Amino acid sequence: MMATRLLLAGVIGFFGVTVAEASMQDVKRAYDTGQFFSAARIAFNDANHAPSTSEKALAYYWVTQSLVRAGLDQSALYFFLRTVELQDRAASRKVLDLSPLFIERVGPDLMRKFLIKFTHPEDYSARAKNAYSLVLAKDKLLKGDYTGAVANASQVQASHALYPVALQLRATAEVMQNDQEAGLRDFAECARRAEQRTDVEEGSLEAELSKEQSSVLMNKWNILKRDASRDLKSRCIAGQARTFYEMNRFEEADRAYDRIPKASFVWTDTLFEHAWNSFAREEYNRTLGKLVSYKSPALKFVFNTEIDVLMAQSYMSLCLYADAGHVIDEFMHDYGSVAKEVKVFVDSNNGDMRPYYSLGRQALEAKLHTDRMLFRFVNRFARAPYFQSLTLSEDRIAAEKVAIARIDQSRPETSTGMNAGFPGFLSMILDWRVRTIQRMGGIYIKNSMVDYHQIMISDFEKMQFMKIDMLAHQKQRLMEPDAANASERSRGNRIPVRRDDQLLWNFNGEFWNDEIGDYVFALQSECAKGSEDTGKKAP
Fold first, then answer.
1. What is the Cα–Cα distance from 123 to 481, expressed in whole angstroms?
2. Which of 21, 189, 249, 480 could form a disulfide with 244 if both were Cys (CB 3.0 to 4.6 A apart)?
3. DSSP string of 415-467?
């Protein structure tokens, strides 16, 4: 069939139409009639025999466009990048209209270096330029160029689906520039708009996938997008709260933390930050009340060693040394083994990223309330939308391989099998995609493990120092009671103030989901007890 097509194209060329033009007409005819895979196959062959860079780039664009319309976007990515890399202005302008879709479905990290190196702002349409500006903004932010991050994020149009993400990036950069008021405004607008996000590309792109594959994958994808939007909203509210905290506006920070939905994973990570806000106000009983929420069966999956550190510090601030000592002893018992396990894993897999990706995927697929401490440790970052999107892309790759094999078998006149021809090349592309996903996911998991392990080690050191400090206080109390009372006279606990929108209920020994995070202890401070000049406990 290919020989016949080329022969006919040559005859047409004799009458004034070039072979390339005739071939492109075949591509467009197949595309316009909904035969997207056939259009991609013809364009791929044209690219392999293209006499010029511009014709090769244009052929790669048609492969990209056709595969996207066939629902094979993971396969299409390679041809998108090759088109961009050839730097033909006409082809680049066409293919870059697909950049928002690839940024959404593949993620910005793989795309960023190609777009920054091979494209320019004038290459993009007004719509596609929004995605390019967002990529630049993230790149600037990661490099510490906060002025550049603000400038690029500001170029994303308010009507675009990526605008809430741009607001979060811009707000973060503004806070880093010490422009807290601007950051607060952008975080607030991000939280307001986050759940208004829509698909970057409207319409189904599943033409060549089976209905069963399409339904399952698109359902997972839509759930992930919904969860990502909710996650973004929660993170922007958390950004407001953290900014208020840094500005010592603790009352406003308290109200902001209260607005983070309790169904969000962000809330489980920021509840201890909320407790720190109470600690800064010297409301130690409220601090302990928030932290005890982590003892609820609903939150047993949370792994955060800083919770125990703050709990011990709160008891220390109330001079309740026996309680502080109990927390410290439990900390050493609970986290000592997992800290060693993390170190052994990292030391054993220094250069290979695949074991890290595999570990993250295993933790993600296991039950949330797992007894395995290493999975609980990894869950803190493996369940983030970024890593989940990588695993979903890997699932999509497997589905695309099945779909390509089915398409090839259904067309006996062009069938080559999965080891040759266009299907064979797509199979190699998908193998490359799996490697890139596992590498990127592995790097993310490894870096997160190393960072959190360092935090764990730091928390072990803090606990050791507190234990030494606790023993010193207890010794001083025994040896020099008057001096001990004088040194602790200013310490104690401010009585937590109940806001107008808060009710007071007694704790009956049960955890209720609507009360988690709002408990307040009723402990009496032991600091400066029996001091001679006041005759009272410290306030």
1. 77
2. 249
3. ---TTSHHHHHHHHHHHHHHHHHHHHHHHHHHHHHHHHHHHHHHHHHHHHHHH
CA 60 vs. chain centroid, Å, equals: 31
Residues near 527 by beta carbon (within 8 Å), at least 6 away in sequence: 317, 318, 319, 488, 489, 491, 492, 537, 538
For residue 274, the one-letter residue type is H
> What percentage of residues in the chain have a pLDDT greater than 90?
58
The whole model's pTM is what?
Answer: 0.81
More confident residue, 428 or 412: 428
Q: What is the mean pLDDT of residues 188-196?
A: 90
Type of residue found at 489: R
**H or E stretch covering 22:** helix 19-32
Q: What is the CA radius of gyration of the chain?
A: 29
* Helix 354-365 / helix 373-382 crossing angle, nearest 10 deg: 100
Which of 23-37, 180-194, 212-226, 324-338 shows the lowest mean pLDDT across its residues? Answer: 212-226
Closest C-alpha among 128, 114, 44, 125 to residue 86: 114
- Tens of pLDDT, residue by residue over 498-519, are 565 555 555 555 555 556 667 7
Q: Long-range contacts for 198-202 (Cβ within 8 Å, ≥24 apart)?
A: 198/161, 199/161, 199/225, 200/100, 200/101, 200/103, 200/104, 200/131, 200/161, 200/162, 201/100, 201/101, 201/104
Q: Tokens 């959190």, residue?
A: 452
Amino acid present at 316: M
Q: How many CB atoms neighbour CB 411 within 10 A? A: 13
